[in-house]
Design brief:
By secondary structure, this protein is an alpha/beta fold. The protein is 42% helix and 15% strand. The strands form 2 sheets. Strands 6-4-5-7-8-9 form a 6-stranded mixed beta sheet. A 3-stranded parallel beta sheet has the order 1-2-3, with no helix packed on it. A hairpin with a 2-residue loop joins β4 and β5. α4 packs across α5 and α5 crosses α6.
Length: 286
């Protein structure tokens, strides 16, 4: 009865939030304060390739509930695929090896991108980029974009991506990535749920059927970049295949992303699925 009570009163959710531990604007503590202020019931901090934020928050955040999360990069047929992993054991050996590899790989990538920018007559320092990253020094492209804006080489981050550091632009370098199948296996080994993030942004929608065969656990049906017909389609696919359905705003908190993280209009189908996922997480945890 305890778990049922806990699950039934979850109605305001956001399972896709970023902090300063990766490329968000808020510290984990600031994000928690904001989530409590606006009355969210359940959240997940899903920083890119790191769970470092969870070392900076108290274990008891009541009345706010948290399902631990991480957004893991992966590759399928040469295309980026982001996987939201919920409920993983952060001390799992395979997961730690993966995130350590990504941490080192992203730094090496940044060094190469800075060298390519230098060839284009744009001079920035690695130390300036690292200063934009969190305590983990996990460097992502928005950190490079931020330096380009600050130094006046571009007007905003979007221009930085469009002209220089976006996929296959002059200063682009691919980051090291594992396959979707390998990442799903690592998530499961760490006791977690593998959910495809913003599936509407996949290079080919047909990939979803391939991912289902690889054993994914769900789809992020509602995302600010999804049209309503896509939300409906993803819900239908998930229901047909017995998958979890989640929703999140992909909140980063910078001025160019006006999507507020309290605006996740999850319908009752999504909420019911999230309650079941959270209930299953509690069972596994205990």
């Amino acid at each position: 009865m305890m778990i049922v009570k806990k699950i039934n009163d979850i109605s305001r959710i956001n399972l896709h939030l970023h902090t300063r531990a990766s490329d968000g604007a808020l510290t984990p503590a600031q994000l928690l304060l904001q989530a409590k202020r606006i009355g969210l019931d359940l959240i997940s901090i899903t920083d890119h390739d790191t769970m470092a934020a969870y070392k900076q928050i108290p274990e008891n955040t009541a009345p706010l509930r948290i399902v631990p999360g991480i957004e893991i990069s992966s590759l399928h047929k040469g295309n980026d695929v982001h996987i939201l992993a919920y409920g993983c054991d952060s001390d799992n050996k395979e997961l730690k090896e993966l995130t350590d590899m990504y941490l080192a790989g992203r730094r090496d990538r940044a060094i190469k991108m800075i060298a390519l920018l230098e060839d284009l007559g744009i001079s920035i320092e690695l130390s300036e980029v690292v200063a934009m990253a969190g305590a983990q020094e996990l460097i992502v492209r928005p950190h490079i974009a931020q330096v380009l804006v600050q130094k006046g080489f571009v007007r905003n981050k979007n221009e930085a991506f469009d002209r220089y550091i976006g996929n296959f632009k002059p200063a682009f370098v691919a980051k090291p990535e594992q396959s979707v199948q390998d990442v799903v296996s690592i998530i499961h080994a760490a006791g977690g749920f593998a959910i495809i993030a913003h599936p509407g942004k996949l290079a080919d929608p047909a990939y979803i059927e391939e991912f289902i065969k690889m054993g994914i656990d769900g789809l992020e049906a509602w995302h600010p970049d999804h049209y309503q017909y896509q939300v409906d389609d993803f819900i239908e696919i998930a229901q047909k295949n017995g998958l979890y359905i989640t929703a999140g705003s992909d909140f980063h908190g910078d001025n160019e992303n006006t999507q507020l993280f309290d605006m996740v209009p999850a319908n009752e189908i999504i909420l019911d699925s999230v309650r079941k996922l959270y209930g299953e997480y509690l069972c596994r945890k205990s």
